[in-house]
Structures are given as C-alpha cells and as structure tokens.
Records
---
Amino acid sequence: MSNRLKYLLDEERIPRHWYNIQADLPKALPPVLHPGTMQPVGPDDLAPLFPMALIEQEVSTEREIEIPEPVRDIYRLWRPAPLFRARRLEKALGTPAKIFYKYEGVSPAGSHKPNTAVAQAFYNREAGIKRLSTETGAGQWGSSLAFAGALFDIDVTVFQVRVSYDQKPYRRALMESYGARCIASPSNETASGRAVLERRADHPGSLGIAISEAVEIAAQREDTKYALGSVLNHVLLHQTVVGLEAIEQMRMADAWPDVIVGCTGGGSNFAGIAFPFIGESLRGGAKPRVVAVEPAACPSLTRGRYAYDFGDTAHLTPLTKMHTLGSTFTPPGFHAGGLRYHGMAPLVSHVKELGLIEAVAYHQTECFAAGVQFARTEGILPAPEANHAVKGAIEEALRCKREGRAETILFNLCGHGHFDMQAYSDYAAGKLSDQQYDESELAMALSGLPSVPEPA
Ligand SMILES: *Cc1c(COP(=O)(O)O)cnc(C)c1O
C-alpha cells in the first residue's frame, strides 16, 4: 500500500469554516491592554492597523467562521494539503509508533503562511486598502504576503530582518518576483529603524524591530494597513484549515493522534494543526498530548515569563499577555529565522497555562540532524523551522520505542527548506553551532517588562 493517503483533490474537502478555539476555552483569554491607559483596547484602537473584519475575528467567540469563497477559491491552488505516513522514517527509527505528517510545503510560497496571507489580503482588499506593510524573518511570511498581494492587486512592503536578508537572498528575489518591495531591517526608512541603527550600526535585526518599522509605516498612511504573519488570534484562526483537514484525513486513515507536535515561532502553524484537535477534546473527544517545540536559543514558552508585554521593540503595539523573553531581547542569529521572536501567541500561551499543551526546546544542530534524517528517509527537505517539529516527532517516536508503545504521532511539516540551502551547506560543513542566548540580556529584557496592575 502506498504511504500517501488516498485523498482526492476534491474541493469539497477544503474546509468551509475556520475553527475558533475561543469558543471552547474553559477560561477566556486575558484582554489586550492599551499601554497608556492599561484598559482593554477596543476596535477603534486597532482600526489604523487592521481592517474591521480582521479585528472582529480577533475578538470573536464564535466557533466557526466562514471562509469567504474568494479565499477558498485560492486555497484550491494547493489545498487540501497532503497527509503522509512516514513509514520509512518509522522503520529507520525502529519504532512501533505510527508517524503521520501534514505537509504545508505544497503551497506556492512553500509553507503554511499563505493560509493567512490570502485571507488577510482579501479582507484588506474588501476594505479598499491599496498597500500592506509587514515584517518577515526568514522570508516565508514576506513571500506569502507578496504572493497574496499579487493576487488581490495590493502593493506589499516587507521589512526583512537583516540577518535573514543577508543569509537568504533568494527569498527576497521571490518577494520581488511577486511584485513586493523588500527592505533590510533595521532600516533608515523609519524612526524606529533609525533609532536602532544609531545605537548599533551593524544590528542583525529582530522580528520585534521589523514589526516596529512595518507598524510605523502603516500608521502613517490612510491607504496602508499592517499585516502580521503569526501571533494574533485571527492568524491562528486562518491556520486552522491545517488541523481541520488533518482531522478528516486521520479519520480516513482510521487513525487518531496520541501526540501532536508542531514547531513554535509565534505559534501559528502549531495552533493551526493543534487547535482543531484540542477543540475536539474540549468538547469531550479524545485528549491527545500536544507538544510545542521551540529553539533553545529563543525559548519563550520554556524559559520566558507569562506576562503582559509589547509585541515589538519600539513599543508601538498594545500589550498582550503571553510567554515572553522581553521585547528588547535580541535572539542570536540562528538559522531558523522564523522562530526568532521574543513572544508567543497569546492563545498558545493561554492554552499552555491551562495545561492543554506542553513545550520543549532543542538546539539547532540536533534539529538539522533530524531534518537530514527526514530527508534521507522521506525525501522532503524541511525548512529549518520545521526541523524542530521533525526533531520533536522523532523524540516522541524514540520514547515509544523505549516504552514499547505503538502510539500515533502527528506533526506539522510546516514548510520545505529549498530556500534555506545555505543553512544546510553550513550544517554539512560543520559550521553551525548551538548559540546560547545571553543570560544577562534575557534578565535585563525581563526586568524591563511593563508593570501591569492585576485586574480587580
Ligand atoms: C514562519 C514560519 C514558522 C514560525 O511561525 P509560526 O507562527 O510559529 O508558525 C515556522 N515554520 C515555517 C516554515 C515558517 O514559515
């Protein structure tokens, strides 16, 4: 039997709704606060940055939110994404576990990110927006939004974190091919960028800084809005197409995961695969273990504090309660650029606090080793970010082997690594090291967290 599940390219199988976990949470998400008043932000506070349809999704507690037909129509280009069983990896590991993976690398940009980029471009277009500004780490989000912008005739400006801009020139070429403008961040184009460059001219950049720059541009212009590729509730919502499809596909395979694994940068691909399953369990279904895998060099879930913090470095965003390393923390320039963010999605942080998920951290070289083992057995070369999920899944499979348990593992292979070959060359040449973050910088960033009064 083929190890690819028979899953017809039947458009009926593309979900008609996104799943909103806020409908099923036993405890509501803490409110987003205005940093000036410390009061919950209202829709008007967010209106300069986002179209109203997305703001409504941000606070919605409706379980199912309809996917607009024009968005579903574009999803048809690559969705439903395949679910595979990794039989050759299982064999190589000698594990009794069954390993399934959902492959999001089949999208035009090569990762899960277009799932939300297309939706965000659609709602902005509906609101008459002509230009979107955004940040990107490794470049996956920038290329996804550039792709979506091309489809909806929206100009896209991307601030790319300097270290990735230099490491991954082909990502920039892809963004430009889709018609976007790509600027290395910190840049001289914004006040927040200039402020950082004044302190350190060769600053490697960070997602927090790039967000400040993109937000600054969007706030200045009526026809420009901001788009974020992770962290926010509406982004996680759009990514639930991944898990909703996986639920159907697991049912077709007559299997159900005992363990779900995803990598976490801002939390969106992890939430995308996990939340629909967690929702099933909150409504009385089976309760899988759910494991978030993060980089040991930027460990917000395992080493951060659960506290109110800014989403960006220049403190232009509202305050959200999340696991954070502090908004001034600059993670080392390791290769999984998409995982270099100081915070974690408030929803992922919240479900962690509720005990619905676990988190582990691994170093980059052991993750690359896992990715190479995956490529040599299953054929797909994962994105460096996705290597963390592969590593997490392999560790679970080896645990099953030690314990003699035939569990079912499902992980999200959130993107391919075809634009990340420099990282693989460096790995093969033994040039990758396991960078440690600076403990004193972390302590300083944490001590700078804003003080927020506990609600009465
Ligand atoms: C952006 C990205 C990530 C990190 O973002 P999340 O919101 O945590 O998913 C991980 N993997 C890939 C392939 C990405 O493009």
Note: Residues 233-252 form the longest helix (20 residues).
---
Amino acid sequence: MAKPCFFASFLCLLSLLSSSSADDPYRFFTWNVTFGDIWPLGVRQQGILINGQFPGPQIEAVTNDNLIFNVHNSLPEPFLISWNGLLQRKNSWQDGVFGTNCPIPPGGNFTYIMQVKDQIGSYFYFPSLAFHKAAGGFGGIRILSRPLIPVPFDPPAGDFTLLVGDWYKANHTDLKRTLDNGQMLPFPDALLINGRGSNGNTFTLDQGKTYRFRISNVGLTTCINIRFQGHTMKLVEVEGSHTLQNTYSALDVCLGQSYSVLVTTDQPPRDYYIVTSTRFTNPVLTTTSILHYSNSAGKPIDPLPGGPTIEIDWSLNQARSIRWNLTASGPRPNPQGSYHYGLINTSRTIRLANSAAIINGNQRYAVNSVSFTPADTPLKLADYYKIDGVFSLGSIPDNPTFGGMYLQTSVLEANFRDYVEIVFENYEDVVQAWHIDGYAFWVVGMDGGQWSAASRKGYNLRDAVSRCTVQVYPKSWSAVYMALDNVGMWNIRSENWARQYLGQQFYMRVYSPANSWRDEYPIPINALLCGRASGRKTRPLSM
Ligand SMILES: *[C@@H]1O[C@H](CO)[C@@H](O)[C@H](O)[C@H]1NC(C)=O
Ligand SMILES: *[C@@H]1O[C@H](CO)[C@@H](O)[C@H](O)[C@H]1NC(C)=O
Ligand SMILES: *[C@@H]1O[C@H](CO)[C@@H](O)[C@H](O)[C@H]1NC(C)=O
Ligand SMILES: *[C@@H]1O[C@H](CO)[C@@H](O)[C@H](O)[C@H]1NC(C)=O
Ligand SMILES: *[C@@H]1O[C@H](CO)[C@@H](O)[C@H](O)[C@H]1NC(C)=O
C-alpha cells in the first residue's frame, strides 16, 4: 500500500497530498529570500529581495494549477510569505500568516503546496511577519483563464503589472520599533511604482493597440489614485471578477486592492505620464512612470493630469459604479449557474467596527473593541492539536460594543456552509480597507452614516462584484455577503499595515463537524511546528 517515501522529495510530498489533483499542471518555484541594497528613492536602503529581485518575481498561473514554492529564508530573522487573494480552498495550512503557519526560521526553508482552484484574476503576495512588508518581498500574481474559457475582451497586446504603494525612507526595523513603542507611523516619504520612484519605470507600447495593466496597492497606509495622461482606462477585472467595462480617467485603488484596466494607445505618438497619487491625504504624494509609444516623437508634456485628492463622494460613487458582468465567464464558463448570491437568505449578521485607543500609553487599534495580540503558537496548529489556552473561540463579539478596548487573541466562531452578512462599520475619520483570507465576498452596499437594518433596502443584490478586499469610507459602512464554503482558520484584517500590526485584525475559524478530507485537507507532512506545537507529529508518512 504505502511506498517508501523520503521526506525531502517533492514528488513524495505531492503524492501524499491527496489534495493536489494530478491532472492539473504543476509549477515549481524555488525562492531565496535575502536582504540586499535597494535605492528606490536615491538613498541606500536594506530591502527584502526574492531571488535578488525587488519587487519579487511575478507569478503567472492558470486556473487550477498546482503551485509549489520552496521558500528559503536567508534573512537573519523569521519570515513568512502570504498570498493576498488566493483562496487556498480547504487549505488554510498554506496561508502564510502567523495564525496559520510557523515562521520559516533563519536559514530554513518551507515548501508551500497549493492549488489555484477555480480562480482567475490579479493578486499579489507579501511578507506577513514583523513589518517586513515595509522592506519589499512582495510581487504580482496573475491567474489566467484556462484556454477554452472565453475572456470578455480580446487578448491584449501586452500585460503589465503595476505594484503601487507608499514607502518610507526609514527601514522596517525602525518603523516596527516606532509601533512597538506605541507611536503612530509618520506620513510616508513617497509612492513607489514597481519599487521605483518618479520616472523609474518606462512601459513601451505600440501605437494603435490595447494593453492590460494590473494595478495592486501593495502599500502600508494610503489609498492611491491612478491616471494615464491623455488616455482612459477600461475596467475589466477586480480581484477575479470580470466587471462591466466602464471607462474611467482616474481610478482609486485602496490598500490591498487589485484592478485590471485596458489602455488603448490611440493618441499622437509621444510619451505620456502614468500618474499615481495618494488619496485622502494632505499633503498629496505623487509619483510617475513613463508610458512610451514605440514610435514616440518626444517626452511627455507637463502638466500632470490632476486627480481627486480628498474627495470622498467621488470615490464612493466610483466604487458603486463597479459592477459584475453577469454574462461574462469567470473561472468557469457560466459564473452564476443556478446559484445567485442575492437570492440566498443570510443566516447571520456580523457587524465589525474599527476603533483606535491608547492602552497602557501605547497606540492600539481594535475590532469590536478587541485589539488582537498574537499567540505563541499558530492558531491553526493549536486548533489541530487541541492545545488549550492559545485562543478561545467566540472571543470577539458579533456586534460593536462601543466599550473599552482590551487585548485578546480573538477568534470568531463560524459554521461551514453558513451564508453570512458582514457589515464593516467605520466610526473613525480615516478610510479603511478590510481583507478576508480564504474568501471572496459580494460587496452588496456601501454608504455614509450609520448602518441599520433599513440600509439593506439599498443593497445591490443583482450584479455586485465578488472580491477579497473592500474599502470603508470615513464615518461610513460597507456590507458584504459571504458563503462560508472554506473550512479553516482565516485572517480578517485591516490592510493598513500599522493598524493590523497594532491589533486591527482577528481570525475566523470556519468549522465543519464532519472532520473530513472532503472539507479540509489534512495537516501537511512538512508543516513547520513551533511554540506549544513543537515536537508534535504532523501525520504518518504513509497515508
Ligand atoms: C541565497 O542567497 C545567498 C546570497 O546570495 C546565498 O549565500 C545563499 O547560498 C542562497 N541560498 C540558497 C538556498 O540558494
Ligand atoms: C529544507 O528544510 C528541510 C527541513 O524542513 C531540510 O531537511 C532541508 O535540508 C532543507 N533544504 C535545504 C536545501 O536547505
Ligand atoms: C460582458 O461580457 C460579455 C461576454 O463576454 C461581453 O460581450 C460584453 O461586452 C460585456 N458587457 C459589458 C457591459 O462589459
Ligand atoms: C535601520 O536603520 C537604522 C538607522 O535608523 C540602523 O541603525 C539599522 O541598522 C537599520 N536596520 C536595518 C535592518 O537595516
Ligand atoms: C428567505 O426568507 C424569506 C422570508 O423569511 C422566505 O420567504 C424565502 O422563502 C427564503 N428564501 C430562501 C431561498 O430560503
């Protein structure tokens, strides 16, 4: 029955993982994570490089591919990579956040084994521990449709990734120390596009063609706006949903969000600016790249196209205009089938309010008054090995309490196959961006003021987009519907990196009493063990 199997062999790992479907292609990646010098703003900084690159290499995959990443941590500190937007179906073991995985120790390696099952779209990966995201280690992910699945636009002449984000001259250890000392981060120093400052990137395009740009906000603290001088953007995809193809001259991209637009080179042949600027900030940071026509007659002409800066209604209206194209295919030819998100009754409403407070003289952030503190053991492992005292279920309420803030390793209890409504309520004056690992959800509504049951009358139950990161405007709410179809331990977090670091996050444990491999894959045999899970056994080598 059982073949002899050597631990370090990939094929052995794969054959033991009943999860990976042998029929679907495998893509193997070997990554070496190091510190190295980068000069994004002209001053030398210590960046996190992947195979010598900043940003890290782009991942290109096709729906249902099996992705095998052997990540070698050559940093002198623990490290993990997480995958923003990858659904990791039945497989929170690979999510790469501290609640699910032990850190890869300095000099160690870990092989992530995952499948991009039934997924398409644009996403990114990032380093999840400490404040590593401020040093790089992020990169783009694109999941293409399978060859026979129609895509609702012609194949573009080129496909570019724009990883945009705010950046500090201070290094990640200094930024982390600021937060650990209970202080807020200063205002960022600049925006970077693909790891470079103004005009550090040139995109060469042929005249008279259409190109795809995948824009992700990989930054730490600010929403951004993007514009292509003299050109419009046709929105085609948002985090795996094909959208109605609206045309925009300026597009807001909040923290952690990804959008695909088509840009047609229908202008006189010269160079143009691609402009990004911070949103809802004062001052406004601006960074440009060059859009270069291959038959260009000259440099771009000033001034830069202006964009929105602090206007909130503009952004809210734009967010509401982003709709799902009901007739376009998704990962499968017919995205809807007989199932329609708007016709299912929700069985539970979870209202989540963010807040800020000072605890023991230190700045903290919370959800429903609970400020998350990491445990000494990944929650997923504590759950699997039934280690008491790491976290307790139901340690975060379903509704805002508006009471005093307290520290807790908060885990929300949830049942497999429930259909839930989640309302993100923002009573603060700062725009929020919320992300849920392991899931995509329908953004059914957002508006200013306080949410109430009557707000449901305005929900879009017809053609809302399904995505994994949603913004919540100041003193506003955003509501989503979500089918709890993915068993596991899943991080729900602010994509504002200082806020998540200081407690604006928690985990949701989606539980199936069946305890079956049909609902959740077994613990990987190569799982790293740490904390109170040290020295346990993963599972027998022959199964
Ligand atoms: C990673 O890169 C460093 C620096 O180039 C090198 O010393 C080390 O051997 C590499 N490790 C692996 C596993 O490739
Ligand atoms: C990767 O880590 C495993 C232990 O998890 C170890 O046995 C193996 O030698 C490591 N491989 C390399 C190339 O460092
Ligand atoms: C929606 O997708 C269909 C099918 O691919 C396409 O023909 C149509 O143009 C799209 N509609 C809009 C408004 O984008
Ligand atoms: C970060 O910068 C400080 C100076 O502000 C320096 O002392 C420290 O060595 C740097 N750390 C890293 C990891 O680069
Ligand atoms: C949803 O609830 C309504 C009112 O309680 C009920 O009439 C309807 O049949 C339910 N729909 C489904 C699909 O269960």
Note: Residues 159-318 form a domain with the Immunoglobulin-like fold (CATH 2.60.40.420).
